[in-house]
Amino acid sequence: MNYKLLHIFRNTPFGRETFLQSLYFCKIINAHPVVYIPKSDKFLMYFSNDAVQVDLDASYLTSPETAKTHAQDLFDEMEIKSKFFEPKNFTASSLPDIPTNFDYLCCPRSVSDLSSKIGLGHLGPKVRRIIKHATFPILITSPVFKPWKSISVFFGGSKNAMNSLKIGLKIAMSSGLPLDIYTCLEKKEASHYKELINAADLTEPVKQLSRKWHFYEKDDFDTMLYDIPHNSLIVLGAYGHGLIKDFLFGSKMEQIQSTVTNNLLITGPHCSISL
Amino acid sequence: MSKIKNWYKRIYHELFHLDDRLLLIIAGSIVGICSGLAAVALRLSLESALEWLHPYRSYGWAFLLPAIGAVLSSFYLEKISREGAGHGVPEVIYSVSRYGGLLRLRSSFSRLISSLLTIGSGGSAGPEAPVVMSGSAIGSNIAKFLGLNDRQRITLVGCGTAGAIASIFNAPIAGLVFSVEVILGEWKFVNIIPIAIAAVAGAQISQSIIPAQVIFNHHPFNIGVSDILPSLCLGIVTAFVSVLFTKILRQTGKIAKKTSFPFWVRAIIGGCTVGMIGMFMPVVLGEGYHFIQLMILGTFSMGTFLIFVAIFAKIFATAMTLGWGGSGGIFAPCLLIGSLTGILFHKMLFVFFPDIISAREGAYALLGMTGLISGVMQAPLTGIFLIVEITGGYETILPLIVVSSISSTMSHYIEPASFYLKELIERGQFLRPGTDARILSDLDLGELVDKEHIRVSENMVFREFIELIKTSNQNFFPVIEDATDEYKGVIQITAIRKYVLDPGMYDMIFLNQVMDTDILTASLDNGLQEVLDMMDMNNMDSISVVEHDLFIGMISKNRILDLYRRELIMQTTAH
Amino acid sequence: MELSVSELSKLLGVAPTTIERWLRQGNLPVSSKGTHCRFNKLELEKWAAKKKITLNFSEKVLPSKKEDEDIPLPAAIQNGGIYYDIQGDKVSQVLKNSIEKISIIPDDLKTDLFERLMEREVALSTGIGRGIAIPHPREQLNYLDGPVICVCFLDHPVDYNALDQKPVFVLFFILCPDLKMHLHLLSALSFCLKDPQFISFLKSKPDSVQLITKIEYLQQENTQ
């Protein structure tokens, strides 16, 4: 299949780690990375119902003369054919439009803060907004390049979680890596989740592709996070419960992404994924 | 919580299923009020900035004021709100034609602040473009909040524009006409009503907050038939002034871009130049509404020669402000230059023909304005209706139409693209609805590509291939590599005829020996226009689409025609 | 009635991505909900009529219809019948006598058919060699229900101006209401006639059951 991942290249050592991570992801799932080397410190993404301006910090524009060769070297190192994206449309002369028809987008945890400040911390507001509007899953990389050997899907039962399960299955299919499903029981029984899967016609693929389904009690959330293998790709849905609830109680996504160092693949509420 | 949510959902659902038009009218009037408020806010703050800075104008260092304003304004735009440069109107037109009017939330206020800094400090620019930008951004964001689709959102963007223009000039029809003529570019029944209501709402807001409309209150004029002939000449004069204005604006901008100074140095240079001019000729400073009013009333006291100089001074000052870092529009400078030209023309008229019976000086100031608006923006209707509303009578309409049509025709002849559209046309992004360029840009290659093609392996023996083509009606067979699925070339039935008719060849050759490898391919990133050009240049009826070395499908001219027609129907018939 | 994007795309004959774009742009009278569009069928039909767009509510039936028309060769012979001992020493005589015998031709049209066949023979002989001729008219015969092949064995071989100048001993009349079927039958027949064994089998003047089994056997061998 012809899947494309957009990577916004940052010509710094930190950017190199993220880029290696994207390349690794593409290699594993057989997708094609497309690299955009920014020429101005901002760009616009037009989603179906929002225009999101992404302001990049100055480090994205570091030594533009070497950026392309650096990216090319990394492409060669991973033995992947290089492809660079040149924006064609401009809203204003210094404001290129980046198309939104990609299948994946790679983001560091924040695009407009300095990398030193991020560490694990929280997701930047722009990344959050992209997740909220994107029709494709977002790959949020770990701070350093970390190959992963398995896939962990965090399944909470919502519509987004269903999407994340689907994308997890898809990746498991194309990569051949083992898949684990993690569910933290909230009020409901384990059987409830199995019924959900059944209703979505996913029982069969889940049976075939997944290694184990782990269930945890509500209080064991942190245990669960620890149990997730350190070298696995975590797939999860964002904003499963609506904005207001997220605002009041915080979302699981925030909790997960601020505790684990793994690579995350996040599906937003507008993602539509078919197996 | 869930109760409120359900309730909201139900209300929303009901509203959505109401007639589209009612929804648009309600939303449009809200948008009109909001953008009207934005326009009023900018005007009031400009007035108070002028008053506040007035005492300092007499000092020797006053020429620095516009520089400070320009630096602050460009610093704000570049670093705080991080907007792209430009005065905004092309951006709105671009977004309307390409992205269904999606505008950023920050645009709804950022241009207001930056233009306040520029104009308030004395920079020569107009507050209309910033107000249009923020009005349309307000419309767009309200549409976003309501979850409307592109068509409805575009209407609300038009409402925002109309409300803003109507409010700033207290001229609802001018707002409506400007919005449709310049921003939307199509007269559609469903658009007109909400936009008209928004324009009226904007004008009403403006009237109720600023009850004594100092500027542009109605002045009746007696323009008679005897003024037709002078109007003809004035039309020609204004056309030349418009072209000159447009050219100087663009040239100065280009020069500024070529210099390697950081933005704030540029702003200082531009601001100081404007300040210096302003020391000797205060008429160039700011948006100049006050002077325009004096000219309309006929109490403007300046010598003939000075007026002549002032026209060029204003043109130059505006170019320096906008090209070198200030923020604002060209609408108000157009009006000022236009009225100066009109007055100059009137004065000259009396020099050469002392006995002529003609209207007052103020009337010619108005005619000059129409000429400039029609010439620079190539929006003749906006020019006509704005002045008609200002004069409040239709007796002026004949000379207005004469000036406006001559000016817009002549300047169109010399400079085919108006100031607002020039940039878009140069980038090939001028996509009015229902035009060829628009349809081609809307149709994505992914929508056209026919993916159901039998692919053949490069290691297939020719005899097998002959069996395959007996049962297939395909004319093109993509050849791929076995292991990687990589695209290798294509076999055209028409090109291999001589081998097909020779059974001796059947077992002798493999497909990689007969395929064409140098046939052009397209990629999904290509625009339809590019692909069509490619096909025309090489006389092809079909082209294969290859991406990342993988064969995606074929695009044929038949399919393009089919979808082109569908798209044309979709875009042009009324809803 | 509820339809998904892909179903609607089939209905309108465009790609699903086009439907998604139209939905986003507000060009369709459909309120979208996730991947499902809900629309009122009546409303959609009204809209399509206004825009002069045809909706393909039914599946296309053209290709399958063509399959039905291809009548197999044995069936055509069965319908046409086999006739023996046709008298005559000249082309016109054998043709006339054959037509007299062929029962599916209405009596009042027999002379017409004879004239047409003779016209064809004058233009170019239908004797294809090895003692075989395939007389047929150049226009279709509208009065026939279906394509038929009538096999007529001659009493004694007749000089037919054939390509190889050999006298002809059997005539295969191909009579069709449609030119397309004609081509199909001609190609199937000439395939069988390529086989020398089949020719010598014909010389034995087989009865219809034997002939049809032989043809079926030949065709089966070919497909294997």
Which terms would index this structure?
heterotrimer; A: 275 residues; alpha/beta; 10-stranded mixed sheet; 4-stranded mixed sheet; 10 helices; 23% strand; globular; C: 224 residues; 5-stranded mixed sheet
Fold blueprint:
The complex is a heterotrimer of chains A (275), B (575) and C (224).
Chain A (H helix, E strand, L loop, with lengths): L3 E5 L4 H17 L2 E5 L5 E5 L4 E5 L8 H14 L6 E2 L4 E3 L2 E4 L5 E4 L7 H4 L6 H9 L4 E3 L9 E5 L4 H17 L3 E6 L5 H10 L3 H7 E7 L4 H7 L4 E6 L5 H7 L2 H8 L4 E4 L8
Parallel strand pairs in A: 1-2, 1-8, 2-5, 3-7, 8-9, 10-11, 10-13, 11-12, 13-14
Antiparallel strand pairs in A: 3-4, 6-7, 9-14
Chain B lengths: L1 H16 L2 H34 L10 H17 L8 H11 L7 H14 L7 H19 L3 H20 L2 H13 L4 H21 L18 H31 L4 H18 L8 H9 L6 H20 L7 H22 L8 H16 L3 H12 L5 H18 L4 H8 L9 H7 L2 H4 L7 E2 L4 H10 L4 E5 L6 E6 L4 H4 L10 H4 L6 E2 L5 H11 L3 E6 L2 E7 H16 L3
Parallel strand pairs in B: 1-2, 4-5
Antiparallel strand pairs in B: 2-3, 5-6
Helix pairs in contact in B: 2-5, 2-6, 2-7, 2-9, 3-5, 3-11, 4-18, 5-6, 6-7, 7-8, 7-9, 8-9, 8-16, 10-13, 10-14, 10-15, 10-17, 11-13, 12-14, 12-15, 13-14, 14-15, 15-16, 15-17, 16-17
Chain C lengths: L1 E3 H8 L3 H10 L5 E3 L2 E3 L2 H11 L10 H8 L3 H8 L1 E5 L4 H11 L8 H14 L3 E3 L2 E2 L14 E11 L9 E8 L3 H15 L2 H8 L4 H16 L1
Parallel strand pairs in C: 4-7, 6-8
Antiparallel strand pairs in C: 1-3, 2-3, 5-6, 7-8
Helix pairs in contact in C: 1-2, 5-10, 6-7
